[in-house]
Amino acid sequence: MTRTRWIRLAAALGGLVLVACLPLLAIYVPGVLPGPTYMPGTLQLLALCWLTAALALSYHLLFGVVGLMSFGHALYFAAGVYGLAIVLERTDLPLLGAAVVVLAGGVLLAYVLGAISLRVTGISFAMVTLAFAQAGNVLVRRNPGDLTGGEEGLALETQFVPDALVGVVNTRNLYWLALAVLVVVYLVVLWIERSRAGHVAAAVRENELRVRVVGGRPYAVKLLVFVLAAGLATVVGMAYLLLQSGAVPRASSSEFTLTLLVMVVLGGVGSRWGAIVGAVLYTILDQRLGELAGSEAVEALPAVLRVPLSEPMFLLGACFILVVMFVPGGLAGAAGRLTQAGAARRRAVAA
Amino acid sequence: MSTLVLLLVTGLGLGGLYFLVASGLSLIYGLMGVLNFAHGSFLTLGAFVGVGVARLVGTDTWAGLGLALVVGAATGAAAAALTELGLIRPLYERHIEQVLVTVGLSLATVALFEGIWGPDAQYLTGPPWLESTTTLAGARIPNVAFVTFVAGALVLAGIVLFLKHTRYGLIIRAGVENRAMVTALGIDVRRAFTLVFAVGGAAAGLGGVLASQYFGYVSPHLGGNLLIFAFIVTVIGGLGSLTGAAVASVVVAVLQQLTNYYLGYGDLVVVLLLAVVLLVRPSGLLGRKA
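ok -> structure tokens follow
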């Protein structure tokens, strides 16, 4: 390993340790966080950030690595959320056993639906995944056999969940769980990207025909990555259920997938860190812009300004459009250009 | 028997609505390769503005409905043309980015509509004749179903005539076939892009006003709900094929009505149909081989 790589690794580990210690510290960033970092409310928001980042990473695997624009990724997330909620409520399995069952179910679902949707490519693929996710959303809302609780959703059945993961007092344990999920998902994504399958996947993104010409099998690789990404989303969904201690139909909606797309593009398509930063930024903005909407400064504005400013989704959507149009590569791309410009200037000074 | 007739005719009416949305999607995709996620927003905007203007006259009068249809279509066309000029054109030929921009626009506009008109459905009453029923083969069929079906058929006929018998129609058809060649012949295809967006937006705006009559309400999510089925219709019909979209609209809507009544879960059956069509004919019913 070169020296810069060691430095990077050390910086990443140091950052991770710092983030893991947040529940023990009292850091307060006014305007960004709702309170000091040891408070359950703040930890809840941060844990949500980590889980969203993990989910965005799994979407990055689809969209950034293999170039599949899926509009149905929320389905597998919802499979984790609702699957675990239902298994915990209806069976006597302990948490870990239930999680294994749900993960197997999510992977099987992804395998069947992925095998069908991957028969088409490009825009058709996007629409087909959207249709499947919509079907899942309809099922969840219709509440077949009283399984999903319809519009009201399901509350987490805590009988078989370890006490350390239940209740506001234990938010810090859930925080660590969320962080662990993010780290695991990151490592798995890294491992997939570095593996042979990952290289073939990247080649499929660039030129599928050429991969086929040299004897690769694009369909198999795409399906593999699709199933892996869906499996990761299922895992994140299960952690999400524990964190929010309930499942709501919004988790399965197509808008939810669209917000994932927004996060990944904001952060920069194809960049792991971009996906994470995009997701964290999005989650915090989504939460804090809602606060802004209720603030007195906005209330006092004339209707022309007040109405748009009081809709967080409008502001985020508008930001997203601006980034797509004017900042190709998203935040990661912009950061890359800045550092390159800086390096070029330093070289010019040295010369 | 009368139930079957009722289901078939209301299915045709719903099919008309689906086609009004799907026709624009299909035209835009056929010419430009852009999947327009913001199409539902054109529909919602057309519905809100159209119905809002009609309220000035009274939504239960024919004049009000006529005004709503005209204003709705014009609003949809204007919104679509502005979208094309402002957001789609600068991203020339970058299809993924173009789709992303329409995704952002749909998210932002739905939130904006919620802010302006409130998140809940606003109920309205149409002209008395539309609210009543006609007896056909023993079935009491809501008159609005006839109107939406006829509107869909008229729009189909209008678009086909426009494509077949006008100069711009010729340019659009040629552009769908081979855009590079049309450009090479010195014709500015970009004007056709704006036109196609405006025509699709007008159909969507019209569909929005009719949908508000069909369902009896307007809400910020009216367009999004219809858009999902319009997507399914365009894929089943074959992307870019107008006749395919028309056939698939009717098939999907009738199937949906029948299964909703006899089995429940009509929406799921539609998705199942989509899966079957993709397995058997990945390019859709009337789509060209990729």
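The beta strands of chain B are 122-123, 133-136, 139-142, 217-218.
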